[in-house]
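hey can u check if this looks right to u? its 269 residues, i copy pasted from the old doc so theres a chance i mangled smth
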Amino acid sequence: MASDNLITEGLTGLEEVAPDILSLRTLFVNVVFIGEPGSRNWVLVDTGMARFTDHIVQVAAERFQGPPSAIILTHGHFDHVGTVIELEQFWGVPVYAHPLEIPYLTGLKDYPPADPSVGGGLMARLSFAYPNEAINLDDRIFSLPNDHTVPGASGWEWVHTPGHTPGHVSLFREEDRLLIAGDAIITVKQESLWSVLLQDKQLHGPPSYFTTDWQAAHQSVQQIRHLEPKLAITGHGHALSGDMLSESLKQLDLEFEESTVPDHGKYVD
């Protein structure tokens, strides 16, 4: 893992969005650490891009006293599970995902290939090269509990937010109405390389080149809006909060068909 440091230098960013919530950007996707600094009880949400294992381990070692209680995956796309096999082996901790996502995490089923025809910018046009193959965690991946609790994270619940993938989940803490959205909503136009480089803070639906069920994706946005989050950490982009978040969620919901669903593409009805 030592060679990772040379590759990841300058490609990460830390954002402390709450006293017990730290977001780490790995190239263009975020991983989230849930837990008080100095705690022995914490969880990692998503594992980012490949080759960032060392950096994630370093951030964790500096912030916490020991390995996480669990790794939670919002979904299994390549940019969210890039280091999960190495981290699971290094820490020896359980990994959890929605049961509908587990076939993609145990080598049984590949995701549908990305659709570069959706348009929107260079990131979308390059998506033909993005991996869609399943990874294989074998017997080290477990289904999230049926009672919607989040293993290792007291006070949190998981919410099924499909559309981007069948088993996509978001995490919600009612106490302070904090949402970890995954890719159900994001705060950067992920199809555009320029937007990704600038990290413009503007609410969007899920990355269109990998989203296969737009009706479910819209329903997930409506579900998130109904939760009335006060702060949202998304899979791509900076955290969004307050009136800007609530007004943006309202606009995204009401204008979803016009602003978010591509005009054309293999997964567009």
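Residues 1-10 have pLDDT under 50 and may be disordered.
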